[in-house]
Amino acid sequence: MKKALVFGGCGHVGSFLAPRLVDMGYEVHVVSRGNRGPYTYEDMPQWEKVHFHVMDRRNAEDRYAAGNLALEIRPDVICDLISYNREEIEGLMVPILKDEELCKNLHVVQVGTVWVYEMKFYVPVTEDHPRTTDDAYGVGKAAVEEYLHGLSKAGKIKSTVIFPGHISGKYWTPINPQGNVSDDVYRNIIEGKPVVLPDEGHHTLHHVHSSDIAGLIAACLENPEKSNGETFHATTEKAVTLSGLTWMLYKHFGHEPKIEYTPMANLAGVLSAEDYRDTTRHLRFCSQCSMEKAKRVLGFVPKYNTMDIIVEYIEYQQKLGNL
User: Fold this and answer.
1) Are strands 77-80 and 3-7 parallel, antiparallel or unpaired?
2) Gap between the Cα atoms of 101 and 82, Å rounded
3) Residue 75, Ramachandran bin (φ over 0: left; ψ between -120 and 50: alpha; else beta)
4) Per-block average pLDDT, block size 10, for the chain (323 residues)?
5) Could you tell me the pTM of the whole model?
6) Domains of the chain (ranges, CATH numbers)
7) Cis omega (within 30 of 0) on the bond before 164?
8) In terms of CB atoms within 10 Å, which of 57, 159, 178, 215 comes out highest?
9) Are 210 and 12 in contact (CB under 8 A)?
C-alpha cells in the first residue's frame, strides 16, 4: 500500500484531503500541532484509518524534524500544507534528499497562495504570470515554489504546487462581500439591512472550497507525469465583485439589495480596526485567477462556486444558532 504524509492535516485543507487520500487507497499519516482534531472528524469515517503524529514544525528544536519523520514513515506522497518560506521547506526536504531510494518515486505537493500576484499585468491571471508581490507571505510562498520546482528540474523528486484563492468552507468564515471575516455583513444581508462597500464595489474576491483543493491535489496525484514541475490555481471558476456578491446574497435571502458605497479610507470610521485591516489587505490583492490550466491538463473542474461556498457557511452557522 502506498503511503501519504500530510503536514497540516487537521487544518482547513487537510480536513478534506486526508479522507480523500484514504479513499484513494493510501495509508495516510497526518502531522499536526495536536491542539485540535480535524474539522471533518465527525463527518468523515475515513479518519478512523488515519495515523496521527504531533509536531509543531516552527517550534521543533531540530530544524529537520519534519524531514526525519518522513524518513521514518517513507511515504510515496508528501502533501505539505504549511511551509511558508524557503527555510521551512528546506527543513522538510534536506534530510529526504539524502535518501535517493526514497526520492526515486516521491511526489511532493505544496499549497501556496494566489497572493504571489499583487500587481497584475492581465486578468484573469494564469500560472505563468510573473510573481509580482513584495508582501512577505507571498514572497515566502513564491520561494517555496521556486525551490521545489528546482528539485523537479534537477530530477530529484516530483513536485506540484497549488495556488489557492480565499480558502473557505462551512467550518470557517469565508471572506465576506466587504473584504473581511465579520459575520455582521452576513447578518445584515439576512435581515435585509444596509451593507457598506468600499469605493464602487468593483474590487474582486476569488474563493475556493477546501474540498475542491483536495480534489485538485487528488487529480495531481492521479496524473503525476502531467503535474510534475507544475503549478495550478485552485479557485472557483469565476471571481466575483463585491457588489455582485452582495447583490446575489440579498436576492438569495429574499431582499432587495441595500448597498451603500463609501471611499475605502472612510471605512476606517465604519469598521473595527481589525476588519478595516483585513479589508484593505484582501482587496489589495483583488484576486482574479484562471482555472483553465487545471481543466486542460488534469481534467479538473471545481464543484463549488462562490455562492455555494457562502450559502453553505451561512446555513451551517444558522443551524448552530450563530446567525
Assistant:
1) parallel
2) 25
3) beta
4) 97 97 98 91 96 86 90 98 95 97 97 97 98 97 98 98 97 95 97 97 97 98 98 98 98 98 95 96 93 98 98 97 94
5) 0.97
6) 3-167+207-234 (3.40.50.720), 169-206+238-287+304-320 (3.90.25.10)
7) no
8) 178
9) yes
